[in-house]
Amino acid sequence: MHTLLILTALLTWSLPAMAQPAPVPGPDETIDGRRYRLLTIRPDDAGKATIAVLELRQAGAGLAAINRALSAELPAAVQRAVDCNADSLAGPAREAGEYDQDMRPTWWTDRLLAVSVHVRGYCGGAHPFFDQEFRLWDTATGRPVDVAGWFTRAALKRSTEQEFELSSRLAATVLKFAGRRHDPDCAETLAGNRSYLVQPGRDGMVFVPSLPFVVQACADDIVVPWPALDPFLGPAGRTGR
After folding, report:
1. 16 with 33: CB under 8 angstroms?
2. What is the mean pLDDT of residues 171-190?
3. Rg (the chain; Cα; Å)
């Protein structure tokens, strides 16, 4: 079944109380010579909300399985946008909420697909929010890949579903490649941080500092070249890239 039909069916089955509009397909785009597009929905009852879901436009059983997994995330995203709007409308300002989700591939090879999900908005309260998540799949099987398995046990440990606490040695190595390590507004924050999102990429492993909202501007992607990570990688990490 075509991904667009799957998305429409999921919305119909999962959110029967809301007659949601069908996702709108965007133009084909390419990364690493492979085609994809974004399917966008602007849910009813969700204020100023736009939700984009990735659709892979290449053939293969593994990629079809990944498309199904990506599609399955949409109903929950729509519900979060609706809840965000309700919270904002119930707040002192009684303004419509804002919710924007963008989902794009960052690296796509014959073996792996890396995806970054950005969610930002305002649901009432003191300040807006910004969240980032990573997805990683085996393109042959369509199964998720746990990047923690690429590292030795001593190098990092999972602290939440998305975040990892780095060892002091690995954190020090990552900091060497941080563009803002000498920025007077960020140096102390980055030096004291050991919590990161982690995702493999074309030029090395990508580390994103997990920081409070007030210092979110310091959370630039940090790309650590593969050779610098060799002491921290296990067999899966050395062969996976």
Report:
1. no
2. 88
3. 19
Distance CA 131, CA 49 (A): 15
50 vs 36: CA distance, rounded Å: 19
Q: What is the pTM assigned to this prediction?
A: 0.84
Residue 203, domain extent: 147-240
Q: Is 156 strand, coil or helix?
A: strand
Residue 38 contacts residue 103 (beta carbons within 8 Å): yes
Q: Do 102 and 177 reside in the same domain of the chain?
A: no
Number of domains in the chain: 2
Among the candidates 138, 168, 199, a domain finishes at 138
Give mean pLDDT, residues 156-175: 94
Is residue 193 within 8 A of residue 216, CB to CB? The reply is no
14 and 130 fall within a common domain: yes
Q: Do residue 84 and residue 171 come from a single domain?
A: no
Helix or strand or coil: residue 122?
A: strand
pLDDT digits (tens, 9 = 90+) for 87-144: 888 877 788 878 899 999 999 999 999 999 999 988 887 788 888 999 999 999 999 9
